[in-house]
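Hi V.,

You were right to ask for the full record rather than a summary. Here it is.
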Amino acid sequence: MIHRYADQAALDASLNARGTVPDIDPIVAAYAAQSAKSRASLPCQINVKYGPKPAERMDIFPARAPGSPVFVFIHGGYWRMLDAADSSFMARSLNEAGAAVIAVNYELAPAASIDEIVRQCRAALVHIHQHAASFNADPARIHVSGSSAGGHLAGMMIAPGWQARFGASGLRIQSASLLSGLFDLEPVRLSNVNEWAKLDAASAARNSPVLHPPEPMPLIVSYAPGEAAQFALQSEAYLAVCRSRGCAAHFIAEPGTNHFDLPLRLMDAQSALSRAVLGLMGLG
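Predicted structure:
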């Protein structure tokens, strides 16, 4: 998904999400502030360990009734910034609708490779599947979501075949919502993002969701109107590949959003994105 005549500057620009907004700082501050409100106002389990590394932790907002679906959110930040503490801004809205909500943390690049970040997120899903009853969730009703780099990571969570390596053959993700993701890491490898992504050709292919589409399942893809080119192109390509595999895959439009504030629409139960997510979780 690289235009064959794109020069280096054009490729770098096509992956520059920050260049699509005047200032990301107020939006990132909103992530943190709204997530802090969630932790202060809802029953929650903070910094629950799912692995031995300090970054392998999650914040859990239990559902109100046993057997509820669980919404698992993986944050973005180009694999190198943000935290689970910034990533539970949607907890109140989805919790009130009947879901458990979990914000997953992971070790950041470049200290962690993309391979390792993917491994950690998969380990988090195994933990969620094994301990679902402890937060009133049904292990067969896991919905995985993520934005930007988190959209990429969510795509790797629904890639087939990894569960057996974790001793979790019974783990099946029911549905997913992928927001402004990157699904082909070869352009990333060739861009200035690789200064911290540290991909080679093999690891880029290994971690490209477009090369590892899911088995048939319902999923949502969304991106903002003014996305940098690769985010939009790759989302459309991934959507097409998933449909070709028999997935019930749908694009959800959210006019008036940008790359960074799109996931904040999950705070509004009446937004198109929230209604679609709740529908996939059986809460529509």
